[in-house]
Each structure stands twice: as C-alpha cells, then as structure tokens.
Amino acid sequence: MAEVTMTVNGKSVTKSVKGNTLMTDFLREELRLTGTHVGCDTSQCGACVIHVNGQAVKSCTMFAAEADGAEVATIEGQANADGSLSVIQAAFQEHHGLQCGFCTPGMVMSAAALLKENPKPTEAEVRDYLEGNICRCTGYHNIVKAIMAASGQDVSSIAAE
Amino acid sequence: MYSFDMESPSTVADAAKALGQDEAQALGGGQTLIPTLKQRLASPSVLVSLAGIAEMKGVCTADDGSLAIGGGTTHATVAAEAGAYAALAALAGNIGDPAVRNRGTIGGSLANNDPSACYPSAALGSGATIVTNKREIAADDYFQGMFATALDEGEIITEVRFPVPEKASYMKFEQPASRFALVGVFVAKYADGVRVAVTGASEEGVYRWSEAEAALSANFSADAVPAAPSGDGMISDLHASGDYRAHLVGVMTKRAVAAAS
Ligand SMILES: Cc1cc2nc3c(=O)[nH]c(=O)nc-3n(C[C@H](O)[C@H](O)[C@H](O)COP(=O)(O)OP(=O)(O)OC[C@H]3O[C@@H](n4cnc5c(N)ncnc54)[C@H](O)[C@@H]3O)c2cc1C
Ligand code: FES
Ligand code: FES
Questions:
Q1: Whole-structure pTM value
Q2: Per UniProt, which keywords does this protein have (chain A) (predicted)?
Q3: Which of B83, B89, B103, B164 could form an S-S bond across to B29 if both were Cys, CB 3.0 to 4.6 Å?
Q4: What ipTM describes this predicted complex?
C-alpha cells in the first residue's frame, strides 16, 4: 500500500492504494464517483475517459498510484457550479447525443479535451478525435453534431440521423 | 491482476537500480503492459514507473542534426513537437487514439516491438540509434523478431536518435478494430540511399525490404517499386491472409514514395 494525494474535480483527496489499483476502481470504489464507466476494461471503448493534468486518458489503463500529485477531472466535475449542465452536456441533451448513456461520460470528457485543444474543430476532426470512444447506440451522428454545436458552430446543415 | 508494488523513481540511475530487484519490470505509459497484467500474462513483483523521470522526456535536435526523443516521451508530444521530422510526427499522431497517445511512449513501443506497431518501422526505416542506460544500439541490430529486441533484462530505453532524411513518409493500412497497422511501410530517402521498413506483415516482425531499397535508391519514384514480395512467411490471421499482406506491402510502399516530402 502507498499513500496517494491528488485533486479530483477541485477537491484534494489522500488515500492508501495498492500498487495494482486501477484509476477506474479508485474513482468508482474508493471515491464513489461512478460516473466514470467501465465498458471494455481493455482500452478500446473510451467509456472511462477522464482528464489527468488536463489530458484525456483512459482510466482503465492507468494506475491510481500514477496519478499521485495530479489534477484529475471526471464527468462529475463537468457541470457548472450552480449544478446546471456545462455547454457540452447541454449540447448532448439538445441534439440527442445519447441514447442509453453508457458511453456518454467518456464522450463528454473526450469532447471537452478536444475543444480545449481545438475550439472550432471541423466535423472530420471531431470524428477523428473520437476514434477511441465507442457508442453502441447512436451511430455517432448526433454526438458529432452536439460537439460541433458546443463549439459554437452552426449545425443546421448537419443531417440528423 | 496479480499484486505488485509500484515505485516511481525520478532519475534513470534510480530506475535502473529499482529494476535490478527480483521480478521488477518497467512501466512506461502502460498502454500495452496494463492490459497484459490484467490478462495475468505478466507477474512482476515491482513495477517501476518511468513517468516521473524528466531526463527521459522531450524532443530536441542534437548537435549532429539528428532528432533526439526521450524514451519516456508520449506519442502526443512527439506528434506535437517533432516537426523537424514531419513523417515521424505524423506517424506518432496516428497511433491509436488521443487518450492512448497521451499515455503511450516511444520507449514502451520500441521495447515491446509488437509486430504490428508503428514506431519500429520508423526506427528501422530511419536507421535510428536506440540509446539505453547502458549503451547505444543501431536499429539494424535492435529488432530481433516479433516482441524480441536486443534489450537486456532491466535495460531502459532513455533516448532514440533519428537521423533526419531528405524525404520520408509512413503509410499505414489500419486494422480498424485494433487501430494498429495491418501493414505499415516507412520510406526514408537519405543522401546515401533509401531505406524501406515494413511492419505488420512478416512473421519475423519489422524488416527492411532490400529489393525496394535498391530500386528506390536508383530511382526514387513510385513506378520503381518492385513487384510485391511473396506471401511466404507473412502473417496470416483472421484479418488478412499472408498473400494479401504481401500485396499491401507493395501498395503501401508505392503510396509512401508518392507521398514522401
Ligand atoms: C487502443 C490502442 C491502440 C493502439 N494503437 C497502436 C497503433 O496504431 N500503433 C502502435 O504502434 N501502437 C499502438 N498501440 C500501442 C501503444 O502505442 C503503446 O503505447 C505502446 O506499444 C507501449 O508503450 P507504453 O509506453 O504504453 O509501454 P508500456 O505498456 O508501459 O510497456 C510496454 C513494455 O515496454 C517496457 N518498457 C516501457 N518503457 C520502457 C523503456 N523506456 N525502456 C525499456 N522498456 C520499457 C515495459 O516493461 C513493457 O514490457 C495501441 C494501444 C492501444 C491500447
Ligand atoms: S473501459 Fe477503459 S477504454 Fe473501455
Ligand atoms: S448512448 Fe448507448 S453506448 Fe452510446
């Protein structure tokens, strides 16, 4: 066991973890932040995407001990301080960017990382960035549309499918 | 996963010492090793994380003009900062997906030497030098077949030096499920000749296609690329037959030559 200290959604947390505790288990089991989902557990699906020091990573493929000293952001920290949805979350709702919602936390976290890096992406850039995020329901069109809308671009010409 | 302890040294010297322990193993970005640990295909007693070693990170131009990349540098950093060798930056920027690129490292990729990985073709195709905590290894001596390299137990890749070519390009025929190369070809034109390295195809792992190198050194054009090699000794699996991979070697080499800049 080793002690780790990190900031999660702005709050400092210190816990003892085993060497082999995955970041997903740390968030879900230790901190009870169950918004970060585990779809594949093999780094394929992206349901577990969080930000570590501002960068999108798959939390199923990272150990909690590796986040010692880091700034961590999860889906639970995305809403505005007053509890209203963030611009990206609101756009997912508005444009029906989700059906079952299982992939959504990872999609929103990937979208947030993309828009920080590239505030006005093209549709092709959005699709390329989401390569590691798999959705079994929506067929992606509305997810892409939501992210384009969240970036402030006109999406009226993107077909709703 | 079996249980293990984690150590996070901040210097190469301390990491080398930690790796001297029984059953110790290096942890780079974990993008290959963590799935392996989950499958219980590895059972280290100690994982030595290299992520906190500042001297192993970053991209810079060395005195001899080659591009030096720290062994712990992520694919995302290479994509963003290796502009002096555009084909290499583009290769790094097309590995896996953004989240994988934010963690995975060049040292981890070369140490693993997956037969379908991208970086081995760049290192071999550029005649790179793999620098470890003990010695310098020429790429031609480094790759020794699927998942096999010249590295000793506990040896750490601290840096990789790439001579910058006049022109180069990497063409990857992507296996869409894994995002690895079904076949990838790295072509680099240097003043003293052309190098062509092929990944994803051979059962021997990454290799140099010497017939294409000779033909392209004489005439650097897509038309000069020789007929595709035979499918004997090529990987055959549910994604593609050996013959199809051999065919792709020819096609991807032509495309790489046509795109080289
Ligand atoms: C979804 C997905 C898609 C991917 N797509 C591609 C792709 O398209 N192309 C591609 O090339 N790769 C791909 N990869 C693999 C990825 O590039 C890995 O990051 C890389 O192969 C391993 O690097 P790592 O830093 O994560 O190493 P780790 O997983 O940490 O380690 C791998 C091995 O290398 C050893 N090691 C690590 N660092 C060093 C070092 N500095 N010196 C000595 N030994 C070391 C470890 O002990 C271990 O044996 C993909 C991976 C995933 C999960
Ligand atoms: S659960 Fe992490 S990528 Fe699928
Ligand atoms: S909404 Fe169901 S998996 Fe994406």
A1: 0.96
A2: 2Fe-2S, Iron, Iron-sulfur, Metal-binding, Oxidoreductase
A3: B103
A4: 0.95
